[in-house]
Task: structure prediction
Amino acid sequence: MNPPAAQRSRELALAIHYVTRYDYDADVVDNLNALRVRPATDARQRVEDFSIRVSPEVRLNRHDDYFGTEVVEFEVSRPHRRLVIDVRARVAIGRPESRPAGSSWASLVTDEYREAGGEFLLQTEDAPENPVLGELQSLSRECEDPLATLLYVSELIPDRFEYRRGATYVDSPLSHVLDGGAGVCQDFVHLGLNLLRRHGIAARYVSGYLFSAGRPGADRPRVRDGAEAESVQVDTHAWIEGLVPDADREPIWVGVDPTNRGLTGQRHVKIGHGRHYADVPPIKGVYRGMANSTLEASVTMTRLDLDGGHGAS
Result:
């Protein structure tokens, strides 16, 4: 059933095209992969179309993981030297909920809050002897309530650390970011999670896409069917959701983006969440064979009109 026209007029409609290609310099077999690439459907966003094509052609198996993210798994058992994964989605994103009214630090020790926070209250990585981390913890302790701390952390990290590709790698420990003073969105999120959990705030890692058209450094609009479409090449993205007590209702998850500062918005398209990156990697796989591989990946996001056609609304 389609949502009411008034609701659709407040939504941002986006097309996502995510292509990943692996080339191998010798035959490989038993190529097993797990994909977490489908946008979530929740109270704020709705998936209107989704498809995955894999070459060589294989059967796809789907299930939801422990945290509720859809996982698509497949195996290419026969010999091959190239693997292409082509993902396409259309999604409609509503405006974020209003901020919680906020409450005191004492709310974090209630049974209700600790039950809602669950495993997201537990540290998954730490660097307790690092003086930089200790300084950041002291600075973020001065905020008046948990919501203010969540917002402050999203500003503190980009103030103190440089966004720099190649400064870290996927499995870099927190100490590399702290000592090197630079990282990417994944590193900023892991640091933010650590700081928030040190203050007793439940926090989770969110994987998704960020529509960055119109921002500095974004691609120019592209022409499709004779009309200009707002389209941009991006990378997969990561941000934080912190569980904020609310004086008027149950604790609610509030998104902040420590790479781009401040609250997440309508341009953030969520795939899923977990305790850290390892719970929600977009693509994870292994293969058998004496071969080296090269990877090419691209994500293109295009703003659509409300009928699903191209063009900015």
About this structure: The longest strand covers residues 12-35. The two ends are 22 Å apart (CA to CA). The chain has two domains: 5-94+280-304, 105-221+235-264.
